[in-house]
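Researcher: Next sequence.
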Amino acid sequence: MCPSSSESPDLHYPAEALPLEPHYARPLRIAEREAEPKRRYVVLFLLTVVTTTAVGAENYAGFLSDFGRAALHVTAWQLVLNAFWYSASILAILGAHEFGHYFACRYYGVNASLPYFLPLPPLIFITGTMGAVIRIREPITSKRALFDIGIAGPIAGFLVAIPLLVIGMHLSTVVPLPPRMIGYNLGEPLIFQAARWLTFGALPAGSDVNLHPMAFAAWFGLIATAINLFPIGQLDGGHVSYAVLGGRISTAITIITVGCLVALTVFVSWSWVVWTVVTTAMLLIFGPRHPRTLDEHEPIDRGRTWLAVFALFMFVVCFTPAPLEPMNIIGPRPRPRSSGGLQAQSAPATEPSADRHRPSPAFESPASPPAQF
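Model: Next structure:
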C-alpha cells in the first residue's frame, strides 16, 4: 500500500518543496541508512504477526468445523501452527506490496522508510491488520520515477496474491450449507470468482465453499490492491493517473472517484464508509490536485502506458462493489457471498445459494466494519 503512517498517502510531499532544477533526489548514504532506528518497524511487524496469527487460529478452527457442524479435536498448539496459513499469506502479500514501493524508491534514490505494518485487534477486526505503509520523505521530481514507484507495489502484491488464491482454493472444500447461521458476506472480485469456478465448477444446490484461511488472506490482498489502485490523489492509482493523463485530467478523475465512493457508500454498501471518510479527508487536506513533477507535460513512454493498462486490469478484477456486509443486518433474505471458514452461530435461516459466505466467529465478538488497508 502507498499511504503514509496513520493511513495518509505515502507519497505526499508539498509542491513548494520541489527543487528548481530537475534531478533525482540524493540517495541516502549507507551510514545514514544504517543509523535509522529499526525498532519501530520490528515492533509493529511482531505485533501484526500476533494479531494476524490470532485471526488465523480462529479462521482455521472455523474451517475445520465445517460451518459449526463438526467438533474440533485439535490442541491450541496445532491451532497456532495452522494459523500461519492465514498470517504468513497476508504478511507476504502486504510485504510484497510495500517492498515493491521501497525497492523502487531505492532504485531512484528516493528517501523512503521501511514498511510499517499496522496491527489491529483481532477480536474486533476480522483481518487482524489494517495493512502496511511506507513513508516517502522527499519529493519525487520525475514522472517516470513517480509512475514506477506507484505501480511497483500493486503489481508485486498482485503477483503474490494470485498463486496464494489458487492454492487456497484447492485447499478449500465444498460442504452443505447449515440451515441457520449468521456471518459476513464477502464480496467476490472477478478473479476470485474465476478461481472458485476453475477449482469447483458449478456448486450443487444448497452447498457452498468452506474457504481455507489462505484463500481468505488472498481475498484480503485482492481488496487491498483494488483500494490502492483507486485513481485518487496520491494513492497508487492516483500516481499512475497523474503520470499517464497529466494534472488537469487526473484532478477531475480524483473528484469523480471520490464522488463514486460516496455513492457506493450510500446506495450499495456501508462497508465503504471508512474509506470514503479517509479519501474525503485527503481531498480536503491535500486538495484534489496531485503534487506536480518538473516534467508534468512530458508524456510517458509506451511501455509504461501498457503497464498503466495492466494497472486498470488489476483494479477491475480485484474490485467488488460490496466488500463486506454483516449477514444479520442486510435484510430478511440475505444472500451468502463468501466463506471465511469461521464458526457459525444460531440465527434466522438463510437462503442457500451458489455464492460464498463467511460465518461469524465462534467467539462473541461484535460485528465489525471492514478493515481498511
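Model: The chain has ten helices and nine strands. Residues 97 and 153 are 4 Å apart (CA to CA).
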